[in-house]
Structure formats: C-alpha cells, structure tokens
Amino acid sequence: MTIQTTTTLNNGVEMPMLGLGVYAPSQQNEVQQAVEWALEAGCRLIDTASIYGNEREVAAAIAASGIPRREVFITTKVWNTDMGYEATFRAFDQSLAKLGTDYADLYLIHWPIREKRLDTWRALEKLYADERVRAIGVSNYYVPHLEELFTVANITPAVNQFELSPYCHPAETMAYCRQKGIQIEGYAPLVRGLKADDPRLQTIARQHGKSTFQVLVRWSLQHGAVTIPKSVKRDRIRDNFDVFDFELTPENMAEMNTWHDNTRIADDPMTLL
Predict the structure, then answer these.
(1) Catalytic-residue membership of 103
(2) What's the 3-state SS for the chain?
(3) Which of 40, 86, 209, 235 is deepest in the core (most CB within 10 A)?
(4) For residues 207 and 215, is the Cβ–Cβ distance under 8 A?
(5) Per-residue pLDDT tens digits of the chain, which is 273 residues long
(6) Domains in the chain with CATH codes
C-alpha cells in the first residue's frame, strides 16, 4: 500500500484510500496552503463540504498545483439546511461553482436529517444518472438509516463516511456496509489528539517507531477504510501520510479493536433516527 493506493467502489470508480480532510472552521486562510502541501506530498483525495466554507480554497489549491483535475478525487457534501429534492440540485450547483469544476467525484448526504434524507437521496440519484457526479453516497449513516434508505434506493451508496477510530468503532455499521458493498470511509481518525496520551496507544507506537497519530491512521487503513486525517500543518500532513512503511500486527489490531469507549468529535448519528 502507498499513498497512491486506491479502492474500487461498487460502480467501478477508483477512490484513493488516504486523503486530506479540510474541516477547519477557524482556519479558512490556511486551507489552500494545506491542500497544496497535501497534493505536493502525493495525496490525491480532498474531502470538503459546503458547510466547511472552503470549497473555493480547495479549487485554488488544485489550480495552483498544476495537477490535472481528473487526477484529484474531490468529495463534497450537501448540508442539512440545503436538503430536499430541488434544493439539493441548487446546493450541488453552488458547490461545483465554488470548486471550479463541472463534476464532483463523490457527493454525500452530510447527515441523515429525518424529514429530507429520502428526497435528498432521490436527488443524488438524478445527479448520478445525469453524469454530474462519478459516485454518490452518505455520511454519518448507521444501520437504521441505511435500512430505511434501501426501502427507496435504486442505487446502492458507493461510500458511507462516518467517524472512525479505535475509540469510536461502530463495528455493526462497518459489517453492514461490507455486506452491502458500500465502501467505508472514516473521518476524525486522530480523535483531535484527545487520545495521544493513552498509554496503550503509546506502547504500540513505540513498538513500531511511529507516532500515535500514525498508528491511528494505520489502524483505520487496515480496516479497509478510506481515511481522511485533517491538518493544516505541513509537518503533520506529511507525517499523517507516512504510514506505509509499517504494519500493525494482528495482535495490535485485535487489542485496538477493544478500545471503543464512544469518544466522539461529532454528534452520534443514532440521535437522528
């Protein structure tokens, strides 16, 4: 596995396994530079969203890099207040305009808002049928949300993006996605540094001569999850991508799989049933 390693989605589209998350609400001015550094390091997956307010910065970074658009996999998302059938089309158009592109590689429903999620999925299917997006999916969907979606969906989501770390490890949802052929994508793998002092994590990091953050990224990748660590610091971005010269042992993985304590950065999707 390398930073160029991809996974094949259920519709045949190739998606990079490791990318950069750009949720940085207080650091808008730094996002363009962070994306440029990530692209320079070999990253080809950039994960943004309309609510992040930095789609223009992502576009500027890709333009500045000189890398052809087709070589960069761009994910964006429809926000809660923009959902609904017609409203989703307007939100998508606005995102594309800010991203300076005529298509998205992956478009996600950001959260499963009860009143609007089914109509929003219908809109995503239309965008996909019209070839305006290469793949569609969902974010923050757990099993009940997916089961409801399958009562109306004509297309199986290509991706389900949700918070994923050893401390927030929704194993049932992961198993369900694998069974349905939905690619798992994990955000907040570093738990915003909240677990950097966990002695169990530090022990495994020392064993491999790596940082605790690198071990967390590696754990997610070894679960087969597309992984999008976030940072706006150059050294940290490089470190987060420097995870291909070691492998966690089966014993490491088994131990880390027992650490779930429901530590979350984002809301619990089960509050949105």
Answers:
(1) no
(2) CCCCCEEECCCCCEEECECEECCCCCCHHHHHHHHHHHHHCCCCEEECCHHHCCHHHHHHHHHHHCCCHHHCEEEEEECHHHCCHHHHHHHHHHHHHHHCCCCECEEEECCCCCCCHHHHHHHHHHHHHCCCECCEEEECCCHHHHHHHCCCCCCCCCEEEEECECCECCHHHHHHHHHHCCEEEEECCCHHHCCCCCHHHHHHHHHHCCCHHHHHHHHHHHCCCEEECECCCHHHHHHHHCCCCCCCCHHHHHHHCCCCCCCCCCCCHHHCC
(3) 40
(4) no
(5) 999 999 999 999 999 999 999 997 666 679 999 999 999 999 999 999 999 999 999 999 999 999 999 999 999 999 999 999 999 999 999 999 999 999 999 999 999 999 999 999 999 999 999 999 999 999 999 999 999 999 999 999 999 999 999 999 999 999 999 999 999 999 999 999 999 999 999 999 999 999 999 999 999 999 999 999 999 999 999 999 999 999 999 999 999 999 999 999 999 999 999
(6) 14-192+224-230 (3.20.20.100)
**Which residue among 23, 52, 128, 141 is the active-site one?**
52
What is the token pair recorded at 88?
A: 């989703």
* pTM (two decimals): 0.97
